[in-house]
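[job 4471] stage=fold_predict status=RUNNING
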Amino acid sequence: MKFKRRPAPADWRLLLLTGAAFCAMGAGSVPEAPVTAPAAAVAGEAETVAPAPAPAPIWKKSAVKDLIGAIEASADQGLRPEDYGLAALKTELDAGEGPALDAMAERAALTLAHDYQYGRVGDRADLGWHIDRAGGTIDPIVLNAMVERGTVRGYLESLLPVDARYKALRAALADTPDGAARDRIRANMERWRWMPRDLGRDYLYVNVPSYRLQRIEDGTVLSTYTVVVGAPETPTPWIAGDAPSLVVNPWWNVPQSIVRSSNLRPGRGGYVFKASSSGYVVRQPPGPRNALGRLKINLTNDQAIYLHDTPAKAGFTKDDRALSHGCIRVKDIDRLAAELMSDGGDDGRLDEALAQGDTRTLQLPKRTNVYLVYFTLDRGENGDLVSYGDPYGRDAQVIARLDGPPAKDNRPSLQIAQN
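[job 4471] inference complete, writing structure tokens
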């Protein structure tokens, strides 16, 4: 005998609910199709999305090894490899390729690139530096392109100075053991990394510690002049500009610092005083006692620095010629002025102006670049390095900053890498 299966308790509840719902309907009502939730929701499971694949490493092991070689070679440029995370980079390389190695390698490469192209010492305004160089950052996109091409080390070394004077310092560094002599070379190499890469075809070059002005064309010294530079308490700044004009029989506008320190007063020394809101504007008229002598060569800069003649000729005979208030006194400046005027074919204007007694400004036929710099080791005319004094005591300051922690404003490239 067969029996029908009794509904399970759960089935009974379902029948009761269904029956109650059916009775509640009107006679003509048609039950709506039940709305069913997605299976995942019914089961209480969260919908999952497959993770995106990890990006391919940018820095392959071969590129990192190339970078490590470049960092180790930075010692040949007077820098310290440990300042570029060398040990940590080697450890991360052993751990394998990936985002961590990418970030570490990029940071190290950008740091070294910046220091090669712009110098490691960033806080140098108090070292007399007033040259505004364009740029200041290294583009990570360019760096990544070099990584893909496998030319990281070559790219980094292309950022170094190419001037023969820098190369002479690098050669000397290779032959100099650790010690004060090596640090002195390192300080001067660092200064060259601050310099513009293209100085121009012809320019005037005043190396303050040498007490000389050189007129250089195509790497050849055409003429040399003895100069007097700023005293240690009023140092000549490090500037780059050009010479647009010269003034014959100039007036001297006395700087306020000299007015105060010299205790100048109206009626003394032939100076002309004019009252102003800040005290007096003091000018010295042309004449045999004028502090600028008979000629002044104007320079484009924001430090009020220029080249000029002087009635105090005895200063040119001294061994220590750091004597001025900052400007450059040039012995035989009339000869230098004639050279600059002859660049475009002198039409006799200079001789005529010198023969007259009035003040005249003559535009130079060609604007010549002018660099006032500070190197205690510099390449001589025969190619050998020449050692000079350190009248402003700058070498020790440069080394202290070169071997210390980098200044915050010296790492714009790292800010890019971290963003």
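[job 4471] summary: The chain has a mean pLDDT of 87.
[job 4471] exit 0
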